[in-house]
Amino acid sequence: MDPPTRIRPTRLPLFAWRPLLAVSGALAALEIAVSGRYGYHRDELYFVQAGEHLAWGYPDQPPLAPVVARLVGVLAPHSLVGLRILPALAAAAVVLFTGLIARELGGGRASQLLAAACMAVSAVLLLVGHTFGTTIIDLFAWTAICAVAARVLRGGDPRWWLVLGGIVGLALLNKTLVAALPLALLVGVLIGGPRHVLRTLWFPVGVVLAVLIVAPNLWWQATNGWPQLTLSAAIAAGGSGTSESRGMLPVLLAAGAPTVVGLLRRRGRTTRRFVVTAALGLSLLINCLLMLPLVPVDYLADTPIVDINYDAGETVGWPEFAGVVAGVLNSLPATERAGAVVLTGNYGEASAIDRYGPALGLPAAYSGHNAFWEWGPPVGGRPDDRSEVVVAVGISRDLLAGNFGSVEAAGTIDNGVGLDNEEQGRTVWLCRDQSAPWPQIWPSFRHLG
After folding, report:
1. What is the crossing angle of helices 160-172 and 180-192, to 10°?
2. Of the four listed, 56, 204, 326, 361, which is most buried by Cβ atoms within 10 Å?
């Protein structure tokens, strides 16, 4: 059997690298300029803490984001701006890849620039490019995979399969859901072609590379009971504030750009160009106002921004949160304060205590939420371990009353700006007379979501 004939790709339009770099650079500069406003997002605090407990996997995520957070912490300790430089650069790369996809789809310089500009002013990119986490890495990965896949499917150098396999493998170390994209591409190629791109040794090599990269995380999930399956069910049931996926937006913009450019070149193009330019400008203005921390935090509660952008509220009030908990702890007699335990309802609260608590004299926090539960119960978890007093926040009184003989309100969380986010108004409880040792009651605090 003769080897398949390699099909040469058609000549691509010129790459509009200068205007694309200008647009992507402007976006990165904007994101970095506002990166220090408000404060950490609860997920950012969590990734930092997960980075202090490095593993091949966690109940709610693969290891990539915590590893990156750990590296940033080494280079720029406790720097919010330092942590957010990476998502800003990733957002800029998404803009560049959007232009590249438009080029692979036959779009000229104008189409590339239009697709990239639309992506740059989109609400989703402005939002996820502002905070560090799995979402911006995921969006970058989906866009990069689509750009490389477009090159391969056009009959490009088959060695691109190796690049694609590497990107997919690394993307799977960030979010498992990204596996749906290469699988969908493979099914599409098998059904609709061009199937000849699969008839090369580089295709299985790329698949093997992706599997080898993600294998340690798969092993961790398998040996820990596949906790991400449970988490996925919780998210699907509404257990996450923001869990929508927009990974295909860059491809849609790239695919539609040539048609729009064609319309702009027809009769009446002056009016059409004005409308498109005005739409881009208006989108930039509105989306920046809603998705970036431009409104002074003292006035944020008086706007509808948090109702539209849930994540904005998640970046306000964490130092104040830790301060209230510290105030309750410091109100205890010295004999109780020395052995007190701080217990929280979710990973954001526990991570905030671990970030801001040391300066306030707080001990490390414990939580039954996601990976925090895996990191163990308070006081080491010896068979006879009990705590004399527990300062608890974010946990229902009923759950506490089932494990402690005395549960009394001792404080109320207040972020100081009247913003109604998840923590605002929560009660800080003082719990005594623990009913059983920690190893026995610890499972009752576990929850995924």
Report:
1. 140
2. 326
